[in-house]
TrEMBL record:
Family: Belongs to the adenylosuccinate synthetase family.
UniProt: Mg(2+) binding residues: D13, G40
Annotated function: Plays an important role in the de novo pathway of purine nucleotide biosynthesis. Catalyzes the first committed step in the biosynthesis of AMP from IMP.
MF terms (GO), sorted A to Z: adenylosuccinate synthase activity; GTP binding; magnesium ion binding
Listed name of the protein: Adenylosuccinate synthetase
Protein species of origin: Hansschlegelia zhihuaiae
Cofactor(s) of this protein: Mg(2+)
Annotated catalysed reactions: IMP + L-aspartate + GTP = N(6)-(1,2-dicarboxyethyl)-AMP + GDP + phosphate + 2 H(+)
One GO cellular component term noted in the UniProt record for this chain: cytoplasm
Length: 430
């Protein structure tokens, strides 16, 4: 059986949480490999809603090992709060069922404050972040001044590391006209976090290697979407990590041979949160209808998502960049009742037709979608669990999407409920 990587194939919010939860029934280990607590997953199981932002979606299933990998940046207080919140809902998390990589980078209050300062400074510099410190934490990581989870086990030795970090951040704070942070304040913040998270800390790369060698099935869970990848997304309106499938290897500590099947998650339409280009965005009544029917509000922030038609050009491109083997098409039911549905099949840029999303920020802002119109359907797809339950025209829509993105549809999701899923090809068996 193949280990499976699940990645978002659009701008995030594609419904990865439900699909990961659905797949985790066959998995032994579920690994989150990048991002931070800016990315939210909503799971609806037997009518109960679970909102996750940092924990892997597999935590709601008993008997599974959940791992937060080294590619994730971890706010220790946010992690402790999320564990406590899930325990109140009856989800029991222990150091035996949840492991956090000892070499994962910490998010501290200085990162959150810097994130908010940048987003609130001037209109032209806003990226549309969640202001949770994810970007500044990744900056410290690549700048080699980060404090990592394992450091919390050796607090008395942290003096030089704190000073190195503050030499950078206090210079920035002076530029913003803010008072400098003291060594003592950072030390106290780290001291208060240590007992909350240290019981879960382990060399997870070693544990994953052992489980892989033992034949356990591993499910790798990404956050955000491929169009927010720091290299391949709509830069600079992207997240601060690699969100494509290749990061599953680096962000977990397992080599690329551990990756078997790559499952991309895409909505039957397109949404985006925050700033940046969105070629198929709809600001009319249909866009509002998609947002209302799809309950398009951010899991973490509650921000309304921008909505538009399916962008087959961008989806085909992310499929190739991530090496996607199959697509899980979600929220097909949101399109129920529309007389016609449009799909972007090309772009027009400066009078020329192109078939890829350009890398240039300027070009991305100038492209215009070229649409193909597809007949809608009057019947309901909501709750469908087999092809026979779908209106004929809905099946035609799914098949046409397959052709346009040059990638097979492996799953179709027709509601937030775990069981409302049509299985075409099992990623673990493929």
């Amino acid at each position: 059986m193949a280990n499976v990587v699940v990645v978002g194939a659009q701008w995030g919010d594609e419904g990865k949480g439900k699909i990961v939860d659905w797949l985790s029934e066959k998995a032994d280990v579920v690994v989150r490999f990048q991002g931070g607590h800016n990315a939210g997953h909503t799971l609806v199981i037997d009518g109960v809603t679970y909102k996750l932002s940092l924990l892997p979606s597999g935590v709601v299933r008993p008997g599974k090992l959940s791992i937060i990998g080294n590619g994730v940046v971890v706010d220790p207080h946010a992690l402790a709060d999320e564990i406590a919140r899930l325990k109140e809902q009856g989800v029991e998390l222990t150091p035996e069922t949840l492991k956090v990589a000892d070499n994962a980078t910490l998010i501290l209050s200085v990162h959150r404050e810097l994130d908010a300062l940048r987003e609130g400074s001037t209109e032209g510099t806003r990226i549309g972040t969640t202001k949770r410190g994810i970007g500044p934490a990744y900056e410290d990581k690549v700048g080699r001044r980060a404090i990592r989870l394992r450091d919390l086990a050796n607090l008395p030795t942290l003096g030089p590391k704190i000073d190195r970090m503050l030499s950078h951040h206090n210079a920035l704070r002076r530029g913003f006209g803010l008072p400098e942070l003291t060594h003592e304040a950072i030390y106290e913040e780290l001291s208060s976090a240590a007992p909350k998270v240290l019981p879960y800390v382990e060399a997870t790369w070693e544990l994953l290697d052992e489980r892989a060698r033992a034949g356990d099935r591993i499910l790798f869970e990404g956050a955000q979407g491929a169009l927010l990848d720091v290299d391949h997304g709509t830069y600079p309106f992207v997240t601060s990590s690699n969100t494509t499938a290749g990061q599953a290897a680096t962000g977990s500590g397992l080599g690329p041979r551990a990756i078997g099947y790559v499952l991309g998650i895409a909505k039957a339409y397109t949404t985006r949160v925050g700033e940046g280009p969105f070629p198929t965005e709809l600001t009319d009544e249909i866009g509002r209808r998609l947002g209302e029917r799809g309950h398009e509000f951010g899991t973490v922030t509650g921000r309304p998502r921008r909505c538009g038609w399916l962008d087959a050009v961008a989806l085909r491109q992310t499929g190739r960049i991530s090496g996607i083997d199959g697509i899980a098409l979600t929220k097909l039911d949101v399109l129920d009742g529309l007389d016609e549905i449009k799909v972007c099949v090309a772009y027009e840029l400066d009078g020329q037709t192109i078939n890829r999303l350009p890398a240039s920020q300027g070009a991305q802002s100038r492209i215009r979608p070229v649409y193909e119109t597809i007949e809608g359907w009057k019947g309901a797809t909501a709750g469908a669990r087999s092809w026979a339950d779908l209106p004929a025209q809905a099946v035609k829509y799914v098949r046409r999407v397959e052709e346009l993105i040059d990638c097979p549809i492996a799953l179709v999701s027709t509601s937030p409920e775990r069981a409302d899923t049509i299985l075409v090809a099992d990623p673990f068996e493929d």
